[in-house]
Amino acid sequence: VTMLGNRIIYNENSRDKTLVFSNDNETPALVQIWTDINNPKSSPDNADGPFVAVPAIFNITDNSRQNVRLTYTGGKLPDDRESVFYFNYLSIPSVKKEDADKNKLMIVVTNRMKLFYRPAKIGNDTADVINKLEVSRQGNTLDVRNPTPFYASVSSAALSAGNKRGQIENTTMIAPYSSEKWSLPAGYQSGNITLLLGVINDYGVEKTRSITLN
């Protein structure tokens, strides 16, 4: 079972958000949905996200689709920047009657994706977020500042210096109006280097930008 899209943008002015699930398998499945604030180990029992999904549990037949309505039910959030939550769905395949008495391995898959609450005040013009990121080198680290009201979901940070090629590991999502420090690997801590930065846009597509640092 899959959901259309790999991130959810929930606009403040929306009464709800329609999500589309599809089951391209030959067997039905049971799907359960929940949201959380920031707990990778969350479950339906301890879900604390301020959203309600209708239906939150449903059977989806083979080769079919199911629409789910997601509604924000929480209180007032900052109106000058995005807030991020997490959307989870669990998919359990059904067992055929003829296989009910057999020992079979059942794979239960949990999918987790970012859920962005976007205030009306900041609009939806996120196309230029990657170009507004401010990157500077400070000794053995890069300081990456996000001066926008949107989250910058960094997908890659490749380095080059002459014939050398490298990668900055463990890059993170950069919150609005904040900065992150990334450690530079050995060989890239002095001299001219080029950073090829990748950021995921609203449609789940990576946009890249090349930045030269002296």
From TrEMBL:
<dbReference type="InterPro" id="IPR036316">
    <property type="entry name" value="Pili_assmbl_chap_C_dom_sf"/>
</dbReference>
<dbReference type="InterPro" id="IPR016147">
    <property type="entry name" value="Pili_assmbl_chaperone_N"/>
</dbReference>
<dbReference type="Pfam" id="PF00345">
    <property type="entry name" value="PapD_N"/>
</dbReference>
<feature type="domain" description="Pili assembly chaperone C-terminal">
    <location>
        <begin position="144"/>
        <end position="206"/>
    </location>
</feature>
<keyword id="KW-0143">Chaperone</keyword>
<dbReference type="GO" id="GO:0030288">
    <property type="term" value="C:outer membrane-bounded periplasmic space"/>
</dbReference>
<dbReference type="InterPro" id="IPR008962">
    <property type="entry name" value="PapD-like_sf"/>
</dbReference>
<keyword id="KW-0574">Periplasm</keyword>
<comment type="similarity">
    <text>Belongs to the periplasmic pilus chaperone family.</text>
</comment>
<feature type="domain" description="Pili assembly chaperone N-terminal">
    <location>
        <begin position="3"/>
        <end position="122"/>
    </location>
</feature>
<dbReference type="GO" id="GO:0071555">
    <property type="term" value="P:cell wall organization"/>
</dbReference>
<dbReference type="Pfam" id="PF02753">
    <property type="entry name" value="PapD_C"/>
</dbReference>
<dbReference type="InterPro" id="IPR001829">
    <property type="entry name" value="Pili_assmbl_chaperone_bac"/>
</dbReference>
<dbReference type="InterPro" id="IPR016148">
    <property type="entry name" value="Pili_assmbl_chaperone_C"/>
</dbReference>
<dbReference type="InterPro" id="IPR050643">
    <property type="entry name" value="Periplasmic_pilus_chap"/>
</dbReference>
<dbReference type="InterPro" id="IPR013783">
    <property type="entry name" value="Ig-like_fold"/>
</dbReference>
<keyword id="KW-0732">Signal</keyword>
<protein>
    <submittedName>
        <fullName>Molecular chaperone</fullName>
    </submittedName>
</protein>
